[in-house]
Design goal:
The chain has 3 helices and 2 strands; from the N terminus they run αβαβα. The chain is an alpha+beta fold and 80 residues long. Helix 2 runs parallel beside helix 3.
């Protein structure tokens, strides 16, 4: 999880995959913050990718996307 990622060398991952859900079938709060996305970005090698499932949760989903954009830049976030 997040603690494992934090303990790893910066730039050491080609990809970080987040496939976690809480009891409400949504992304756990520890994976929704700008702090988490900043951490993931630091741990990715140049050209690396972060992938996650984000269920449509209305305003909460938009806040997660905004946090991702603040960490990675608007041209680096793809939705599909």
């Amino acid at each position: 999880g997040r603690a494992f990622l934090a303990s790893q060398q910066d730039g050491g991952f080609d990809a970080v995959v987040v496939d976690a859900f809480d009891s409400n079938a949504s992304l756990p709060s520890c994976f929704r913050t700008r702090d988490f996305f900043d951490l993931a970005r630091r741990k990715l090698a140049p050209g690396g990718a972060l992938s996650l499932n984000l269920l449509s949760m209305g305003k909460a989903s938009m806040q997660v996307l905004r946090s991702m954009e603040l960490s990675f830049g608007t041209r680096s976030v793809w939705i599909g």
